[in-house]
Design goal:
It contains eight helices and twelve strands. By secondary structure, it is α+β, with helices and mostly antiparallel strands. Keywords: Membrane, Transmembrane, Transmembrane helix.
Length: about 325
């Protein structure tokens, strides 16, 4: 299992470092309250509400939080040191300063904070709590809470497995500057997603295997549709004959179908659809607020080859997908 543990040394930017932290949280299999309890038992404070806020950002958290988080997730001492060292190096390389509301969040009394409902947490923040903070810091904390409340309303995010931060990274353009994807109209509301380099479509197995692979378009499964989220990103929704509605997303560096939001196990389920540089009507499927795209490293690949996360390259054949109207509306 240790061999599968996310490695912070793979991160080249603060945004990628935060993506690795989200992967480590998913790898641990622990809830935010469980991580908090393990950290407290080890003598390291790690308020779960502070951790929720930190994992929603693409900016580096404080060094103490990184150390407590890595240890609580089950990293050995040398592993914790690797996380701290990588955070230091990225902070120096990118001139990073911790967000001011990290300190404010930790100063809040947190014993009655909701565990899995960021909306409830945001509702409770302005009303009735004793912050014991200077006026300026208190104002910053309230402003941050208001921003996250608006984000929760807009995206339906869950505190248990937050998607990548709505705050753009250094390597990603502002969502408002990204043109909307122009997909062909579909009478059924569904689209089949085809890897141009291989001619095969996105699909999963019909059993409990949720990993997304490429297969012949005739065998594609389940039905998929593309839903704009409203902040320049999209969800790729699924309709499964047994499990019902779901979302395609990212888990431990792999592409999986699962329930949407906190009900499922994916770390992120929002994507940018970017026009490919190869011409035509193809798109890159970029994980929102990251430099990683869905694709195949060595196209065309074999039948059943799992999709992977790769550094985005608009000219890479293995990252260009065609979104085609799916005439099929029957849940097969």
């Amino acid at each position: 299992m240790a061999a599968d543990r996310p490695d912070p040394r793979d991160a080249e930017t603060p945004a990628e470092f935060m993506l690795q932290m989200r992967r480590l949280k998913a790898w641990s299999g622990l809830t935010f309250r469980q991580l908090e309890a393990r950290a407290v038992a080890a003598g390291r404070p790690l308020p779960h509400s502070t951790l929720v806020a930190a994992l929603r950002r693409d900016t580096l958290p404080r060094e103490e939080l990184v150390a407590a988080f890595a240890a609580a997730c089950g990293c050995p001492e040398e592993g914790v040191a690797q996380w701290v060292d990588r955070r230091r190096r990225l902070a120096m390389d990118h001139g990073h300063r911790p967000p001011p509301d990290d300190a404010a969040a930790e100063a809040v009394r947190d014993d009655d904070s909701p565990d899995a409902d960021p909306a409830a947490a945001a509702r409770s923040t302005p009303g009735g709590r004793s912050y014991r903070l200077p006026a300026l810091v208190l104002a910053a904390a309230l402003m941050a809470a208001g921003i996250w409340w608006a984000i929760v309303l807009g995206t339906g995010a869950s505190a248990e497995d937050p998607p990548p931060s709505p705050r753009p990274s250094r390597t990603a353009a502002q969502p408002s500057l990204r043109p909307a994807a122009h997909l062909p109209a579909s009478a059924t509301g569904f689209h089949r997603i085809r890897l141009v380099a291989s001619g095969r479509c996105l699909s999963t197995g019909r059993g409990k295997d949720s990993q997304v692979k490429q297969t012949t378009c005739e065998q594609r499964f389940p039905l998929r549709s593309v839903r704009p989220v409203g902040d320049g990103t999209y969800q790729i929704a699924t309709l499964h004959p047994e499990f019902g509605s779901g979302c395609m997303g990212i888990r431990n560096g792999q592409v999986h179908d699962d329930w949407c939001g906190g009900r499922g196990g994916n770390e992120s389920e929002r994507f940018w659809l970017e026009p490919a540089a190869t011409g035509g009507s193809g798109y890159l499927i970029r994980v929102a607020h990251s430099s990683l795209c869905v694709g195949l490293p060595h196209p065309p690949g074999r039948e059943g080859t799992p999709l992977a996360l790769l550094p985005c390259d608009p000219g890479a054949r293995g990252q260009v997908f065609a979104f085609e109207a799916d005439p099929d509306s029957v849940i097969r």
